[in-house]
Here is the input.
Amino acid sequence: MARLISWNVNGLRAVYKKGFLQWVKKESPDILCLQETKAELSQLPQDLQQIPGYHTYYSSAERKGYSGVALFSKTKPESVSYGFGVKRFDVEGRMIRADYGSYILYNVYFPNGSASSERLKYKLEFYEAFLNHIQKERDSGASIIFCGDVNTAHKEIDIARPRENEGVSGFLPVERAWIDAVVDAGYLDTFRMFELGGGHYSWWDYKTRARDRNVGWRLDYFFASEELKKKVSKAYILSGVAGSDHCPVALELID
Here is the structure.
């Protein structure tokens, strides 16, 4: 059994001060994927640079204090790479690819499109480039798992107030259509394999204290290519974990 956790920490140095390492020790995931780390390796405390028992990989943005992803893995992957060969995407430090033999894992912090029309365009182009990239991997025979903050709620059930947010980036029809395309291409939204009901979210707005009222969005996912379906034993949201405006999501796999 392998337990994978993905979490947008909204600043690794900030969550470190809130007991992050104690949480890792308690949960003891086999693989931990973080997004929005907002730090270069040299800026981190030594015990974050190398957590005991884990192989550690970081990808940082060229812009300081922005974006970034990290991967902690008890088992050393067969290979690790960063980005997918498109410079304007890769400079933002949004992706780590780890090959575990039976599957390739992508830890991705997808762009947010709410700042401007240019950033929405960038987000949609990133979406398209990423899906094309993993489809080439699948065409060559690889099984794929990708996780992270997708920055879009897929369906009305994945957002507390769908009507009020129809025109907001993160719930635009064009963004949601990309997740439709992911599913149509043969990737399973693993959480929805086990939970079909509403009220399950992974992000809440800090400013309005939305978490207290569970007025949230489900923005964080584990997708698995459909041939891995029999290996997926559990997928769930760790909604009780504080420290960020996102909470972690988890996937359990049968070896």
Q: What stands out?
A: The first strand starts at residue 2 and ends at 8. The two ends are 5 Å apart (CA to CA). Helices lie at 12-16, 20-27, 46-49, 87-90, 117-139, 173-184, 210-213. The first helix runs from residue 12 to 16.
